[in-house]
Amino acid sequence: MSWTITPPVQSYLHQKTSTIQQSLNNFALHFGIAFGTLIGSFVIKQFSVKHNATFGSFFIVLPLLSILLAMRTRRLAPITSKQNIK
Fold first, then answer.
1. 85 within a domain of the structure (yes/no)
2. How far apart are CA 25 and CA 3, in angstroms?
3. What is the dihedral of CA 58, 52, 39, 41, to 10 degrees?
4. What's the structural domain count of the chain?
5. CA neighbours within 13 Å on the CB side: how many for 14?
6. Each residue of 15-73: pLDDT tens digit?
7. Domain for residue 83, yes or no?
8. pTM
């Protein structure tokens, strides 16, 4: 499923950004797939296929916690008025 997202994202990045950002986006996609494969193969070797979903859910919880932390930090940051911005 992740492979179906790549062409629209690359098309959007091509219109809006530079080549290096497209390369970094593609690198992050492939690195995530390789890292997930590495963790999945470790889980299968050490435990069983049944536990892959459980370990995979940790990789969903971590970004959600990061988002919540970022939202909380942003809410606590002082808001400056447009008059103070030069």
1. no
2. 13
3. 180
4. 1
5. 6
6. 666 677 777 877 888 898 899 999 999 999 999 999 999 998 888 898 899 889 888 87
7. no
8. 0.60
Residue 35 near residue 2, CB atoms below 8 Å: no
Q: Structural domain of residue 12, as residue ranges?
A: 2-76
- CB 27, CB 19: distance < 8 Å: no
**Separation of alpha carbons 13 and 41, rounded Å:** 32
DSSP tag of 47: S
Rounded to an integer, what is the distance from CA 46 to the centroid of its chain? 26
Two structure tokens written together for 41: 């193969």
Length of the chain: 86
Give the end-to-end CA distance of the chain in Å, rounded to a whole number.
45
* Cβ atoms 59, 35 nearer than 8 A: no
The answer to the question of residue 71 being in a domain is: yes
Cα torsion 79, 83, 85, 86 to 10°: value is 180
